[in-house]
Amino acid sequence: MKRATLKLVSIASASLLMAACGSDDTAAEEDTTVFEEMDYTITGIEPGSGITESARNTLDIYDNLEGWELQESSTGGMMVELQQAYENEEPIIITGWQPHYIFEIYDLKILEDPKEGFGAAENIHTMTRTGLAEDMPDATAILDNFAWETEDMQQIVLAAQDVSFEEAAQNWYDENQDLVSEWTNGVPKSDGQEIDLISMPWDTERASAHVMSLTLENHGFDVNVTSVDPSVLFQALAVGEADATVTPWLPTTHGAFMEEYGDDLVDLGPNLPGAVSGLVVPAYMDIDSIEDIPAK
Predict the structure, then answer these.
(1) Which of 4, 126, 239, 281 would be 285's cystine partner, CB 3.0–4.6 Å?
(2) 0.85 exceeded by the pTM?
(3) Is-cis flag, bond preceding 99, omega within 30?
(4) Which CATH architecture has domain 35-120+278-292?
(5) For the domain bounded by 123-273, which CATH number is listed?
(6) How many CB atoms neighbour CB 218 within 10 A?
């Protein structure tokens, strides 16, 4: 009787082992099928952009990405592809960055990048021209106090898809007075002193520029905002043609401009920490790192 019991246990154990092996094989096949559906292609944005160059670098340094291709498109084209895939719960890998309002619309994750193909996490900084602290100490104090989170910026950019940036920023400003008061607390109001802010034509930077403009205006300053390309922005600050900015990404995105002009301007430090770019997937995909992506 004991022998029969042992035999039955042995047979059951063998069956479970075979089932387990079969499950692993099936899972592996399913994983392969998922990436075959994607034709081993990463959906990118504009050729020549910094994130596109980082994506190409990433394809080169990860052995498991051998055979993968980067489909260069446009930011708008990438977002259409993401929307279609997400609505059908289909697999997709895109090049993305945060802050970006798509993280407010979709449940996404940026894949871990242990080899830093996209570089380390960045911070968005506040900078001024040399001498602003002496000329406008109260404005400089507000600029120096300015600090917010990724979610704040993303909320404005998302809202601005339906209304103007001015209205989206105003609504956020009105709803977040507790935070705004931390930037202005103890700073005397101005009597109309003029200050020139300089920004960049990116949606995230338009959000921060509008919020800072509202903050200074409501504290009595006469604010002008000019949007220019990054190279012009750094040069304008360095020669004193603009007073301040809340938009540069460091150390990577605008690092080259900082090396060229950094000695001639004042860096007040980060106003938004942890800006990140990388490969992005919907949360329903069962991968967490670039190293989880199988080779073709």
Answers:
(1) 281
(2) no
(3) yes
(4) 3-Layer(aba) Sandwich (3.40)
(5) 3.10.105.10
(6) 14
